[in-house]
Design brief:
This protein has helices at about 25-35, 45-50, 70-75, 80-85, 115-125, 145-165, 180-185, 225-240, 240-250; strands spanning about 5-10, 10, 20, 40, 60-70, 90, 130, 170, 190-195, 210. The chain has about 250 residues and is of the alpha/beta class. The chain has a single domain, classed as Glycoside hydrolase/deacetylase (TIM Barrel). The strands form three sheets. Strands 1, 4, 5, 6, 7 and 10 form a six-stranded parallel beta sheet that branches. About 45% of the residues are buried.
Length: about 250
């Protein structure tokens, strides 16, 4: 077994119509509840050792991840994690670092900014690992081979250039991965790939995660309502196809 992996998105005061935004107060309540219950957010290198079989997962260890690298994380999420000594992983859409999220549907007409490279540099020193979420956030199984490799490779090169170290992990946009995408990720140099939903099968390029939504309880995923929460989240994740269809018509 591997530690549970939680996936967050927006931690923002500003409201929107999407289901992945949590208020800062809600996020802080969840993290403090996890810490009080004895859970520990481990760094990516320890999680990777569990994946390889070089390390046995602790009973109450988990990996906290953030997709999209929104700017609100620097003000509302990362300081909370620092206060309880939790590590985490943040997946960056590299073409949009420091820019507005014009790759996404503007639910309710709102746009949100992404972390700038200077923010990323600062929080690397506080236990946050920054890895790839591709260059522009497309649904990878829908791409031809040339664009698939470009999305994975260009993002990896951008992180290497900005941070001085190439990423080892990629989070697949919308959690969408098939065998072709997993092979391309390996060919581009990634040793870990993070999806959404599913069960651990031993494939380091298809690591399952449980998304945290606005309805998640104070002990998200690992609490007594975890099975129900994961079932509802699976239904919500299927709705992301709509965003992918919009992307195809907009670009």
């Amino acid at each position: 077994m591997i530690p549970p992996v939680l996936c967050y998105h927006k931690i923002e005061r500003r409201r929107e119509l999407g289901v992945t935004r949590l208020s800062p107060a809600r996020f802080a309540a969840q993290i403090h509840a996890l810490a009080s219950a004895g859970w520990r957010g481990i760094p990516l290198n320890q999680f990777a050792a569990c994946i390889r079989g070089d390390r046995r997962a602790g009973r109450r260890e988990l990996l906290i991840t953030f997709d999209d690298a929104y700017r609100g994380l620097r003000d509302h999420a990362f300081p909370v994690l620092r206060d309880v000594a939790f590590a985490a992983v943040c997946f960056v859409i590299t073409d949009f670092a420091g820019r507005l999220n014009r790759w996404d549907v503007a639910y309710g007409g709102r746009r949100f900014a992404h972390l700038a490279w200077r923010d990323i540099e600062r929080w690397r020193a506080h236990g946050i690992a920054f890895e790839s979420h591709t260059a522009t956030h497309p649904r990878l199984p829908w791409l031809d081979h040339q664009r698939l490799v470009d999305e994975l490779g260009r993002s990896r090169q951008a992180l290497d250039a900005a941070l001085g170290a190439a990423p080892r992990a990629v989070s697949y946009p919308f959690g969408a991965v098939d065998s072709r995408v997993a092979r391309a990720a390996a060919q581009c140099g990634y040793s870990m790939g993070f999806a959404l939903g599913g069960r651990w099968s031993g494939d380091a390029l298809r690591i399952p995660r449980s998304p945290v939504h606005c309805w998640s309880p104070n002990l998200p995923v690992v609490g007594r309502l975890g099975h129900l929460e994961r079932a509802v989240s699976a239904i919500a994740s299927r709705c992301s196809v709509g965003t992918s269809l919009w992307q195809g018509s907009a670009f």
